[in-house]
Design brief:
Length: about 100
């Protein structure tokens, strides 16, 4: 299985460029992230909507190397949801997440 970082790099994931639809990642710890951009000056940093399962989703940056290290209760790594297809903008997902206290994707 390819690493999460290679799955979200600009080379392999055109959906993670600025102005594109979000790409969804999840893990067995109950976290969901809709990542939209990779920092061109620091390609290990991504930006998007992050929901750690605590009821307070937020927009922000995340280190892809830290995501690779995250393990949930079943010790499973973060995986990119290859079947996720965005149906709205990141700001629309954020508004909905803030209203519900969780990402609704």
């Amino acid at each position: 299985m390819a690493s999460f970082a290679s799955n979200v790099s600009r080379r392999t994931s055109p959906s993670l460029t600025s102005g594109r639809s979000p790409s969804c990642s999840r893990n067995d710890a109950g976290c969901t992230r809709l990542l939209t951009e990779i920092d061109p000056d620091d390609p290990v940093i991504a930006f998007g909507l992050c929901d750690l399962g605590l009821g307070h989703p937020e927009l922000g940056s995340v280190s892809l190397s830290e995501l690779e290290a995250v393990r949930g209760q079943l010790n499973l790594p973060v995986e990119r949801d290859l079947y996720f297809a965005a149906t709205k903008t990141l700001s629309a997902y954020a508004d909905e997440a803030w209203a519900h206290g969780a990402i609704v994707a």
